[in-house]
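Private note to self, pasted from the team thread so I don't lose it. Backbone tokens:
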């Protein structure tokens, strides 16, 4: 991994979206071209020799990271979308949020049994979205090869949650303790 200082590009916003929460705004990572190149290269290079055949990214910010990583790896990109956004037959996975539930879908023909999938997203907090995405990959018959995120909120213990179902590698660029 490069020695690029990603953390200096993250802006902490206190009391957003509610009092007591410190929101980590990662959008400056995308508007700095040197930073963007480094983050795509660091994720891609980390997984370059792991026989990845597809990258799956969750709506919507997972698209911002996943598609360029797929391009760099020379593989296809599969979007995991919110319900009703995909026009063909889909697999669906519901998952828990802090308050309620959400759902992600992928096209049934997007992945196959020979695919080794890297799941990429911008941030992992509790691991719920990543686990739901991995379950979609499994529904398709493909295999999860690893997970990658720009930012990990370590104090919410996402790795412990993900490890209940998956022992594949979790690679992050920024760890918030």
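Design output:
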């Amino acid at each position: 991994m490069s020695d690029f200082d990603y953390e200096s590009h993250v802006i902490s916003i206190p009391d957003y979206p509610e009092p007591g929460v410190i929101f980590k705004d990662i959008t400056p990572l995308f508007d700095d071209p040197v930073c963007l190149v480094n983050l795509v290269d660091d994720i891609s290079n980390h997984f370059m020799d792991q026989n990845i055949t597809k990258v799956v990214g969750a709506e919507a910010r997972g698209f911002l990271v996943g598609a360029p990583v797929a391009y760099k790896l020379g593989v296809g990109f599969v979007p995991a979308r919110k319900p009703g956004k995909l026009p063909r037959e889909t697999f669906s996975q519901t998952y828990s949020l802090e308050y309620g539930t959400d759902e992600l879908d992928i096209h049934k023909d997007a992945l196959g049994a020979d695919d080794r999938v890297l799941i990429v997203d911008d941030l992992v907090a509790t691991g719920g979205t990543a686990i739901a995405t991995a379950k979609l990959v499994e529904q398709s018959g493909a295999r999860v090869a690893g997970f990658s995120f720009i930012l990990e909120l370590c104090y919410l213990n996402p790795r412990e949650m993900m490890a209940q179902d998956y022992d594949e590698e979790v690679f992050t660029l920024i760890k918030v303790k």
